[in-house]
Structures
1.
Amino acid sequence: MARRGSYAKGIAKREEILSTALDVIARNGYRGASVKELADAVGLSQAGLLHYFGTKEDLFVEVLRTRDRRDEAAAGSYRGAPLTGFVDVVRGNASVPGLVQLYAQLSIEAADPAHPAHDYFVERYRLFRSMMAELLRSRIDAGELGAHVDPDRAAALLAAAADGLQIQWLLEPELDMAAHLDYLVALLAAPGADDTR
């Protein structure tokens, strides 16, 4: 019995660490979130914190996964207009610049197949393109997007646009990422289609 309780406590502590890390990184950025600061925030030593994740990079990958789950839940609330949900997730990123910075930095570093975040980003992009292409197909079939749209290519372009706009926003915070992405989505609409993105 003690083992099961210990396991549950470990899971709870891991979730606490991830939630705290999300807040600290969102506020202080990728470079401003030291293992010491994160450990102090959850009442652990640095070694104790890393016991749950292995390395700082592994922790950061889990932070991004946690952020993704939250974003998916938020976007999922737009059942009737899922492309609007996608744009609103990007809009919400303006309130968490540190997480955008973490994502952008790790995505570049993860181009190295040996990086701990490599598999995360490969899988994330594959999943995004697949889900977005399916969503675009359904919108084309419903007459809401133009029949000229290639769903697979458009899905890849939407991912590229969202990530590229986030980098531009990090450099120029006055840039409205969501407005630009919303414009791109509108370009895909079929002539005369109502706005149920």
2.
Amino acid sequence: MTETILVAASEAELAQVRSIRREVFVEEQNVPEELEYDTYDATSVHVLALGADGTPLGTGRLIHGAQALELTGGKQGRVLLGRLAVVKAARGTGLGARLVRALEQAGREHGGTELELHAQVQALGFYERLGYAAEGAVYQDAGIPHRTMTRAL
């Protein structure tokens, strides 16, 4: 599958990001819409994968700076990957891994030396294959079991 991964900047691109997240998290996984979109969206870096025909296929976000410090317990140099979502039609193509790598690069560009993410337990193997290590206990987020994972950048 040939796609383009870019940093979403225009209102139209950010609308595509929200559309993918709504489809994957709200509709498929029953995450309440009020939990899916938050104040961190406004200052995060959002990556967007578009198919050759312009169809939105996947997204993810990077929280950095003061907000990352707040969310990671003040860990200097740590940035936070979140809201990674790939539409059903593009799953199993390697797109998720390419989105993670694009977010890692964005993390480096924003001064990050370590990346933290909160993985759904069913996705732990995916992130482990990309070099992430689980830490701490399993916890619930939006009714879905998660575990914190980290990787040096």
3.
Amino acid sequence: MGEVLAAPTDGPLRPGDRVIHLAGWRDHALLPVTEVSPLDPALPTAVAHLAQGSAAYGALTRLAPVRTGDVVLVTGAAGAVGTLAGQIARLLGAARVLGSTGSPHKAVRLVRELGYDEVLLRGPEQPPFADRLRAAAPDGIDVVLDTVGGEQLAAALAVARQGARVAVVGALAGQMAAERGGGSAPVEIDTFRLVVRGLSLRGYAGTDHPGVEAEWRERFGGWLRSGAIRFPYSTVEGIDGAVRALPELIAGRHFGAVVVRL
């Protein structure tokens, strides 16, 4: 998000306008007017335009639609997507929302501040994730929004109910694996279970759903104004901070999104 410093006098933008662009973190950018978008008045604050909830909203309404009374699991619940995903699932009618995180402190915040019913800790010192997930959801899970992959995705499929819907929006297990360099996230899954349980497993790409972004902003703005949803984020100061902001986000150093403020 940036501020227009100069623009053609016969164009739609004027100096001082706030806009969204995809030119990355930088102090200045020279861009065609077609590559910037004015801030949407549907959102009550400027920083809300940087929320990463559209993927969660799209996945939970298109690929793995939440139905009233569903049990929903969000992996990586304390991240930029996960902190919004649990709240979105509840607003869409979920009866029980489960999450996962590697931090006890974040687990407490997710329950206390964002309405998760239970958050499971992951890590080598913890019991097998599948066992704890079965205990937390003894009757199974209806919807999974997965941002992690790996052991957690395999466990979610093992606990899924008949006809459960699984949407994959991230692969943090691969991104955090030093030996993989972030380029892959393989996991062994039981395809026989996919068949006999009638499960759907799909990856979410926003470009496949062009109408989601505008729909999300409209609903997000209304939820923010009514107090039905929170947008947690941490702020990193200065362009120099951008160098560490992304790796810190992936490594789970922050709660929610990370905003670099120039």
4.
Amino acid sequence: MRGTDVDTPSRPARRSRSAPRTVRREPRGFGRTVVGVAILAVMLFPLYWMLNVSLQPAGAAVATPWFPVDLSLDGYATAIREQSGNLGTSLVVGLGSVVVSLVIATPAAYAMARFRLGRWVEVLLFGVLITQMVPGIVVANALYSAYSDLGLLNTVGGLILADSALGVPFSILVMRAFMRGIPGSVVEAAYVDGAGPVRAFVSVVLPMSRNALVTAGLFSFLFAWGDFLFALTLTTTETVRPITLGLYTYIGSFVNDWSPIMATAVLSSLPAIVLLVVAQRYVAAGVTGGAVK
């Protein structure tokens, strides 16, 4: 009734959502930090020692100090003068292996990820995995016999094909996993706009799979750049010699002076380090981020 005061039970005041909450932060484990720094120091010490020895003057490799006091670039001058051709060969072989691996693996991975192939997909994946399990020495011996008949020994093209045998299966596995995460609605929208399968693949799928392409290309280059077994088996002259084999034969010539050897090792490590630093954000980024709006 009007004019009558009705007592209503008082409700407890709700806690404001904007009220600050006390967050308990666990103290950082000092022991874990020390252990992590120690492990990192042990892992990076060979790289530091390689750089340290490469900066030593000639004849100082026997009693190398812990820190490069008397810096000398004579080792790098010798390495560049005598190993620049091998570095160029490795660069050409690595880039060629990337191109061959991506050209073959990209459409194969897309077909296995998007098309309905039934149980054939599992059979193909099993075959790809089997190729990754075969020892490299077995493949190298088989390739030597075939290359001898085809005239591909001591050729850059032969090394590219051999190194691509490692890059193609790995690239298929990586890119298929990435392409399976691409929303089907994006490809269907391209079909609605009038694009065919090839146009949708080139204009839609490939740009969205940029991170997968960078990842597969990076590892294909690293496989070819660090290859030693195929280089040792399929090259018998000095005309075509990658840097890994050049460094192996270099030790016999400068066994009394390790400065040029370590300088060559530093130069051969630079391309891999630069690529890993540049491409790490593409490897860590998501494939379909921002694709569907």
